[in-house]
Recover the amino acids of this structure.
């Protein structure tokens, strides 16, 4: 019985992981960019610029920002330019539509 519960919990955890992975996947022209926290805002802007994008918003932390580009491979270009993470911009709570 305990093994069956473990299997069910493992499947449930895997299912939740898949949902989160789909939710945070960058989609569309706006993305949330996370760069090296030890660099200042210019480091973040350099990564975005090197990837051919534009800075849209940056909040309290200069190493986290929202960037924009029409390029289909923008997320990959950000990673090659030095971004640590590129996520769905919906995770940037409060920056959408001026909220």
């Amino acid at each position: 019985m305990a093994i069956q519960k473990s299997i069910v919990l493992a499947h449930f955890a895997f299912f939740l992981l898949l949902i989160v992975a789909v939710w945070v996947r960058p989609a569309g022209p706006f993305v949330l960019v996370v760069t090296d926290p030890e660099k200042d805002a210019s480091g973040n802007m350099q990564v975005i610029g090197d990837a051919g994008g534009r800075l849209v918003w940056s909040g309290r932390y200069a190493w986290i920002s929202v960037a924009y580009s029409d390029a289909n491979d923008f997320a990959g270009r950000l990673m090659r330019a030095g971004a640590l993470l590129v996520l769905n911009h919906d995770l940037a709570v409060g920056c959408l539509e001026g909220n």
In short: The chain has a mean pLDDT of 83. The two ends are 49 Å apart (CA to CA). Residues 51 and 74 are 7 Å apart (CA to CA).
